[in-house]
Amino acid sequence: MISRRAAAFPLLPSRCFLLCYTSRQYQYRGFTTITETSVSSTVSDSKDPPSPPSERPVILNFEEQSKLIFESIKSLSARTLNPQIKNNQPLTQFEQYQIEKAARETANKLGVVLEPHYKPHELITNPPSPSEVTLEALLAAGAHLGHATALWNPANQRYIFGIRQGIHLISLDVILAHLRRAAKIVHGVSQAGGIIVFVGTRDGHERAVVEAARRARGYHITERWVPGTVTNKDQLLIDQKLRVVDSRDREIRLTRRQKEGLQATLANDKDTQGAEPVQDTLQVPHKFGAVRPDLVICLNPLENQTMLHECTQYRIPTIGIVDTDVDPTCVTYPIPANDDSLRSVQLIAGVLGRAGQEGRLARYEADEEREEELEKTRKADRDKKQRERDESGRDQMHNEAEEAASEARQREIEQESELDPK
């Protein structure tokens, strides 16, 4: 049985519609019309037998009534603003503004108040910090849902909470503990200025991966991992240039003398003869080799076994989302969670990106404090040198005064000896 529902959409001053959905079991209700003397409408039960209802919703047009309501409000507001106003005199812009303001204030009081609720889109635009992640957020994102019991990996037994309808459920406490541990690793690497790479090659991972890498000032891979990127980097990355930055991720610029010296070094080196002219960015000769990442975060380890194997060979730590069908030993720091849910992946990637951002800001703050301490030390050294110079100047002036006094005394003695006939 379909229940009776009604929705009113006031669109003053143009139109006002009332949409009524009725069923065959309910009678129609009558609506009294609005006259010039009455601006109210009442709803009363009709005693007459109802007419056969139609299958489509009944739309009642109250355009004339809305015009009468607006005219009455207009006249009442005008008389309230200026009792001496005439009926035929047009309203001023200020009076129209007051009427519209009163209508907005009245309309704003209608409706319901939205309580704090779950907003999935904020998992990417405004992800929570590691300390703000709750079990409710993980539950809403579906991070606890695993695979069928027939597909499970026995190594994940310590992460599984139970079974429901043939599906393994991951413990939310375990997910939260492992997520915060991984976030702490990302925070430390970012604070130390390490290179972090986010990898997510499934459909729908691109936006979350790019946003997390942007927050952590890292790098991202959203397409197929090229085999040999780590093990054979000198051949695959031979055309890439190295960019040197300072502790605040600002690119270091070269002076003219440094450019000329580096250009001479490149010209004298056999491996770099015929290289391009040195530009503003710092160009390091290729013989130093490409740079390997300090941490790799993989959102789908099942499809990136080659990348994880290369990272294992060069002892690069990895963080990955491990579902119940994945071997948790393939990554260094596993996060047991649902890797098939986009909300779950977005939440975990957002938390790790926020941890990298906090570590980067902590590095900037520490660098500022270091610069302040260094500036204080330099100022103290300058003040000390200035005091030493002042003291040495005073000592020199005192010595010169003593020498002048001794010379004057010596001249006096000589003059007395010349005057004495003895």
Structural description of this entry:
The chain has 422 residues and is α/β, with parallel strands linked by helices. The protein folds into 2 domains: 104 residues, no CATH class; 195 residues, 3-Layer(aba) Sandwich (Rossmann fold), CATH 3.40.50. 43% of the residues lie in helices and 14% in strands. It contains 10 helices and 13 strands. The strands form 4 sheets. It has a 5-stranded parallel beta sheet, with helices on both faces. A 3-stranded antiparallel beta sheet has the order 1-2-5, with helices on one face. α1 packs across α2, α5 runs parallel beside α10 and α6 packs parallel to α10. The protein starts with a strand and ends with a helix. 21% of the residues are buried.
Outline of this structure?
Helices cover 43% and strands 14% of the residues.
Topology:
Elements: E1 5-11, E2 15-21, E3 29-31, E4 43-45, E5 58-61, H1 63-81, H2 93-108, H3 122-125, H4 135-141, E6 145-148, E7 160-164, E8 167-170, H5 172-191, E9 196-199, H6 206-216, E10 219-221, H7 233-236, H8 256-268, E11 295-298, H9 305-313, E12 318-322, E13 333-336, H10 342-419
Parallel strand pairs: 9-10, 9-11, 11-12, 12-13
Antiparallel strand pairs: 1-2, 2-5, 3-4, 6-8, 7-8
Helix pairs in contact: 1-2, 5-10, 6-10
